[in-house]
Amino acid sequence: MIYLDTHVLVRLYLGDAGDLGPAGRKAIEEHDLVASPAAVLELEFLHEIGRLRTTASKLVSVLGQEAGLRVCDLPFRIVVEHALRENWGRDPFDRLIVANAKANDAALVTKDQRIHRNYSRAIW
Predict the structure, then answer these.
(1) Domain 2-123 falls in which CATH fold?
(2) pLDDT at residue 17 above 90?
(3) pTM strictly above 0.90
């Protein structure tokens, strides 16, 4: 399984997967796709402020049907326990998304350089 950062979910939804790095594209083609609930919430925030036209629910539903995306069902307290150790940034979404991937010992497709510096399993 491989986790997808919020911006990767948006790119896949918009059909912009060509903009992904080669390692990220390969991982997406070869693994089951998972979204952290934090990424879903971040998508909804982007919709609410007008930066994303569709709702988070619609985006996740479409990617579920088209790419087999599922939302991680790991208990929130376990994710938070991992997030408490992620003191490298103040963005709560980034911390929770990385923590979710770490809790499942999974890679995370992201372009975010801060995440790459702090999570060895981040790929692009």
Answers:
(1) Rossmann fold (3.40.50)
(2) no
(3) yes
